[in-house]
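I have been asked to look over a protein record a colleague put together. What it holds is a sequence and that sequence's fold in token form. Please read both lines and tell me whether the tokens look consistent with the sequence. I do not need a full report, just your reasoning and any doubts. This is what I was given:
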Amino acid sequence: MRTVLVANRGEIACRVFRTCRAMGLDTVAVYAHADASALHVREADAAVRLPGNAAADTYLRAGLVIEAAVVAGADAVHPGYGFLSENAEFARAVLAAGLVWIGPPPSAIEAMASKTRAKELMAEAGVPLLAPLDTDTVSADEFPVLVKAAAGGGGRGMRVVRTPEELPGALKSARAEALAAFGDDEVFVEPYVEGGRHVEVQVLADAHGGVWALGTRDCSLQRRHQKVIEEAPAPFLPEKLRDELERGAVNAARAVGYVGAGTVEFLVGRDGRPYFLEMNTRLQVEHPVTERVYDIDLVALQVRVAEGLRLDGDSPRPSGHAVEARLYAEDPRRDWAPWAGEVHELSVEPGVRVDAGVAAGDTVTVHYDPLLAKVIAWAPTRAEATRRLAHALERARIHGPVTNRDLLVRSLRHPDFIEGRVDTGFYERHLGELTAPGDEGAFRLAALVAALADAMRPVRGAGNCATSPHRLADEGKRGPGAQPLVAAIGAWRNLPSAPQTKRYRPLPTGTGEDIEIRYRLTRAGLVAEGFPGVRVLDATPTHVTLETGRVRRTYDVAAYGDTVHVGPYALLALPRFPAPESRALPGSLLAPMPGVVARVAEDARVGAAVRQGQPLLWLEAMKMEHSVVSPADGTLTALHAEPGRQVEVGALLAVVIEEPTP
């Protein structure tokens, strides 16, 4: 093996390239038109274009990907995760082309590809599981149930259904989403276990019959059935249950003749009973936590197994604890709609591992998953690993994207998470408190810092701030009671002057009310109205130092157009004299995100009566469907959404005229 093509994109492609370089292997990327300048393309030794943008036209086209490998001279293919990674026909085609397949045998993929067939095989192997229900005969007392896509994962094509009346609509919606994400609309229904923990086991198998169980992971913190925070080993598990899960995972791998890295997923009920969910015949998104705990490189082991490695002896011994958080570009104030746009900066302080798929200057598009990066912390204990991760995320410089950073930090510091009181319903119980608007006082202080930094730009923007004559004139005068920066902002005059005023809006929109900052220069120096006890010690366009009481703090500032980042806070600088705003007609439904109209409800017709909360259409963005619902009871008077239409944020989709209150 000399050259590896990664049949994927983003974070996982970059991750595989990193190991390949360390192993002395050349790398080849494939890319859609929208990914022409993406990070994974820049990091590869060579790249081959796949014409188009949609995944179905590019990364899911097995023939095109294999052709790219042949054209680029690759002799091996790594599928990553998602896209074609669990497609048995793709694996067969790779092998038929004379290439090395860095993955399990096609027969094993096929055996586990359909979750319904996988459950039958696991039952035969004695692995405990939840039996599927017949969608036509499921009775009222069997609810709640879970609708799942037979061919996929990642929460796509999955719906919790609590009443029989909701089932037909959930089945239809799940089928549509599964077809868009996996090219297969088969779904099934199984009992929904309330309060269960999502626990999985990493396995690694060679072609000689050897199978290692590389410990457990807990992935219970999920929102919309997508994992948010994962950790290894799964905490607070009785040793007997841990052994049972690992034995079940090894039996599952042997039952299908598995080779390579894979994951066996279980649901552990409140009573401690485990149930087989599925086997992912690929590398998992959360594999880094296992790597950190076992001090291994799973991608390197995948490559070596593909080259014939024999797993001699026992598996490595674990050490310490690791926690991973998935940083997504999504807007919590818009029902977690995916965010698209430019990333100005994405950096995390040393001490944690960062697996990123974007870098400064990259653009997040609407076509693919909104994952920006995974941040992983390891420590000897769970408490320390969790603390390290929360601290690193809080101090990370994430400029440009609207993200789930606050949710991650608050989740890691929540008492229930710290004490291990977690299950798949964690966010159903706590999402409100975890996404409440931030501290108004902190935003006001950030706005003050932004205003002071902005005041420095006209004076210091032309030269080096560190050697500004104004700054040098103040050097040596910074003792107790000194009032610096008067000369920098403007000389004091023995005349009353109106205060300088600047206005800011906390971001994301909806985080808080607009903030007005007023400050003036006096004989005593700079005075900010509404900030008693706050002294300005220093200010440049990029750093501001304040003293409150006896506590001194320095704040980093970065401005990109009208957007200003002060530490973890983002603000929109508002114009002094705002232009008249164009207003949408009453009842207008505007696109909450960029995307493609996936489908329109059958009963959404112009002139039809609609009720509040009724779904009118669905937008597809980043491989998921997002419903657009009627804001009130009324009449649908306009519809500007046909399937396949590409829309931008704010595009008019429909108009609902509300019925007058009698």
